[in-house]
Structure formats: structure tokens, C-alpha cells
Amino acid sequence: MKMAIDAMGGDYAPEEIIKGAVTGARQNGVGVILVGPQDRIEQELAKYNHNSIDVSIVHTDEYLIEGEPAAYALRKKRNASILVAVKQVRDGKADAVLSMGPTGGVYSAALQVLGMVEGISRPMIGGPFLGYSPQSIIVDMGGNVDNRPDQLLDFAVVGTVYARKSLNILNPTVALLSNGKEEGKGNDVVKQAYDLFKKSGLNFVGNVEGSDLVAGSANVIVCDGFVGNCVVKFNEGLALKNMEWWRSKLAETMPLNKVDEIIEDYRQALYPPRSAGAGTLWGVNGVVCKNHGASRSQDIVATIEIAKRAVEMDLVNALKAELEVVRRRLNQTSLVNFTR
Amino acid sequence: MKMAIDAMGGDYAPEEIIKGAVTGARQNGVGVILVGPQDRIEQELAKYNHNSIDVSIVHTDEYLIEGEPAAYALRKKRNASILVAVKQVRDGKADAVLSMGPTGGVYSAALQVLGMVEGISRPMIGGPFLGYSPQSIIVDMGGNVDNRPDQLLDFAVVGTVYARKSLNILNPTVALLSNGKEEGKGNDVVKQAYDLFKKSGLNFVGNVEGSDLVAGSANVIVCDGFVGNCVVKFNEGLALKNMEWWRSKLAETMPLNKVDEIIEDYRQALYPPRSAGAGTLWGVNGVVCKNHGASRSQDIVATIEIAKRAVEMDLVNALKAELEVVRRRLNQTSLVNFTR
Question: What is the pLDDT at residue A335?
Fold first, then answer.
């Protein structure tokens, strides 16, 4: 198995990316294709022993810069590292592609080069995000905004497939995140989606509220990416703050090694175990993994592991097969036109 | 000072409402007007010593039931307790009105009977919601959904007034909650609001992300009530879960009285100090306070204190005065039409 890695994507590229790629390749027993300027990559590679692992370089001088409008930049930079990396998957040279670069760039490159699974209109990012509710997937959390009701249904269908495949839940419950549990609560899009969900044949249990994300009241909780992004980032900020508060509080009453031990337990309670599909762009016709821009080498290692599991589970084909079933059911009853 | 209290609003009405009203009246040195069925109120009052406090009853047999469509129900029930209670303020018999009843009912009654301060289109609920960022107000958190860009600007103006008046911040910074800090990030409404905010003369510092709610990166953080409601309820659920986790964790290593002490410190870190205006319907032409449906007597006491401070600070007139200033500035430069 080979992973194409955008060596120039991320705040600490290429140094941390290449460090993580070497470690991740060794730990996971996979090959890596590093995409970026040959000289800079070789310079970094020279720092590590990589004799026993399968590393190759695909040269390109162009790459995206954080903050530039991604779609526009990709039209100018036809050899941007992210585009070249994604092409490795399209051309069968790699099984998955990884980038820590700008989200918009990864989205656009995936969409342009690999395209979407038929019937899905946009890439989405989802997964469990809270350790207290490890059996709850939130989708979309990638900042996929201004979704139509039928796109929220896409999220629900894809989320159902991932819950089944990566969390081993036979008949995942599906809910809409709203500002109240009762039918009739919600903004316009959620209200319209409610009707669509009811008729979808999915295991729809109605609306849930923000606190239900903590309780894990449904396996697949669907929301517009604007809301999902706000909640997920709020949670990230709060987790760090909580750990900081407790670390300093506990240090008043117990030895530091004991503090570290308890904080580590807390960290594990807050963050869900890594599941296949977390951080992958769902709905894309290939395995594309994205981690945050501030990723360090250990994050690259983790992302390689996630990508490996997504490839092993054959998530893309599982999604296609499931969509076929849902689509057939929906077409029979003429409820949704999936062929937009 | 007198508070009109909807004795029939809330999951534990009228028992807990009346218990709280009696205690709150005594503690805060205010009078209370209890609105609801005379016999039921008298029956509850009989349980408490209320000789030294100013309690009166305004009788009505009608009240709203949780779950019924509020606006529709209020058309049928012209003597609903919430309507009658709000009328006490309109008629100068009370200085503020309090209800733990359905949010929609309180909104509609306030809007119908008291109306909005000129230039504001909808009631909003805001305030500090996280102890880690006590100088940060989020508005709207009341579930005021599908807002236009100019309504988000209303939130910003009103939030600025409240931050100035209730948090004593001279020139509060204002930000838009978005799915990224950069200009250009956001859903359509946020992007349009961004331009409006830039030209508003407010102390606008741009977009902030979910984690900035924790960091308190701006004094007034503006969002659609759908997003605000999801984040605030997520935070509520998470706070309870965190306290539960830590309580059981600490109990493994220390005596229970020590555990209680630390958990109480944590609770105080998580929840902001009560500020004037928290839980009041902002923008309404009068002081209307709302607390959650599950409120117990101690919540009623707290709400009475908040209402008292809002009256003392003369928040409604402060808002009118500030709006006049902002409006004059905006009209001069013809940037926003406040007279929609």
C-alpha cells in the first residue's frame, strides 16, 4: 500500500511532514510518495534513516500558500503539490492521499481530480469528535456551508455508511442537530430536511439539541458544516482549557507524576478513539485524508494510520454499494431525486 | 420595585415558581405580582411565611402548555398568564416581568404587548455563557434563527450596549462567529454581514472561530441564534458531563468533602458570574426575563436578582440612547437603513 503525501501542505511543511512520513511509513508498513520540491525533500530526508522503507519523490515547485483563495490558486498553479499528490491516486500510483494544507485546496483538488461518488454533490468531513460519545458521528464538521436540505440528506446517507462500516453499528440512528427537539424546531433548511429525512428510509429519530452531542443520542448527527465547524472548534478550545485548568488545580494537591497520569486519563475521556474515516473527505471517489494545518509529525503518523484503515476497509466501495441501495429505495418511492 | 411573575410558566409551575418568588422577593427587597389561577397560587403561598413581603395576585385561568405553538396559542388564550404578566409592565404596575414558560410564548407576548425598541426587529438573548471568558458576550443564543445580515448587526449593536453597561467595557470589540478567521470565510449571511460590520463604526475585529468563544477573543461575538443555541446547549451538556467525570475520578484519590470543594471551584470556573442582562430579552421595550423551563426555586431567585439589576441599570433606556448614537452615525454615512 502506498500513500501520496503533499510535502508542502501545513504550517510546519516540509520539515514535520517528512519527519512524520518516514515514521508513519515504518510504523504502518506502507510506502510513501512525497510530492514537492525535490531538493527540499531530499534535504529533509537526509536527516532520517529511511533505508528500510519505500520512499519516493515526485517533484513539483508549486504549492498553495495558507490564506490564498484555493480554487483560484489551483487554476494558476496547475502543478501545485496537492494537485500532483491527488493525481497519484487517480493514476493508480497511490492508494490514498494525505495533506495538511489549506482545506479549500484539498477539497478543490479532490473534487477536480477524483470527483465525487455518483449522487453526492460535495466532499464532507465527519466522524466521532467527543470521547464521551464515541458512537456518535457528526457530519459535516468540515466547514461545508450553506447546504440545501437534500445535501443534509447526503450527509445522513454517507454518515450512515461510515457508522455501519467503521463503528460496526448495524442500523445507525440518524438525527438532525437543531435548536430544539420537537418537530417544527429549526431554521428553514432543517425544517425542510426534517420532512425529507422522515421519508428517506434511514433510521431517522428526529431532532436533537447541542447537549445530545455529549449524550450521544444518535449515531449520526447531521448539521450544516458552518454549525459543525463552530461546535467542533469550540470543543477543541474548551478541551485544551479544561486540561490546563485541571492540571494547575491538581498540582496544588498531588505530585506531578500523579497529575500527568490523571490528565492523560481525562484526555482519553475527551477524545474519541481514532476511527477509520475520521479526517477523510467523505463522498470523494478515492481516499483523501486531511488533518489540521498545525499538524506536527505525530499527527502525520496518525493520519497515515487512518488512511491505511480507510483503504483496508474499502470505504469508498462500501459507500458506493450502500448508496446504490438507498437510491433504489428512494427512487422507487420517488421521494428524492439523487441525480441532481 | 415590583416584578410580575408568570406563576404558570415552567416545568415545575406553580410550586417552584411561587417558592422562588417568595424567597427572591425577600432576598432582593422587591415586591412580586403573581399571575395565574388565584386558588392554586393561594394554596402554594399558604406554605410560606410571606407577611413581611409585598405579594399580590392577578388572577387568570389560562396559560400556555409546553409544546403548543406559542404564537397560535396566544391568539386563542387572550388571558394567558404570560400575556397578563407582561401587561403589568406595560401598564406601569410592574418594573419587570419574569417567566420560565415556553421561549416562543415569552417572545411573542413581549413583542405583542411591549414591542421592540425602535429600529430593532426581534428580541434576542445574549450574555456571557462560559466562565473561562466572562468578558465575552455571545448573541443570539436564544434560538432566533434565519437572521439577515442587518439583524446580525442589530445583535452587534445591542451586544455592544450590554457589554458597555453590564460588563463596564468602554469600547467593546465585536466579532462574527465563523468557520474561519480570514475575511471571506463564512456562510452567505456572515459574508454579507462582514461588509456591513466593517462599515458600522462598531469596534469590529473580524471573524472569530469556535475556539475563540473559549479564549474570549472579542467582547461581543455575534451569531445566528441557531448556531448560538447549538453551541450553548453543547456547552451545558459538556459541563455537566465533565463535572460528573471529575467527581468520580477524584473520589478515587481523596475524601468526598475535598472532592466537593474542588468540584465547586470547577463549577465556578465553568460558569460566568451572573451579569445584568443575562436571560433578559434584549431589544424589547421593557425588562423581560426568561429562564429555562426546568427552573427550580433557586433559579427563580437568581432571575429576580438579574431582573432587579437590569431595572436598576436602566438597560432599556441605555440601549435606546446608544442606538440613537449608532443610528445617527450610520445615517450620516448612509450605510444602513435602520428604519426597515
Answer: 41
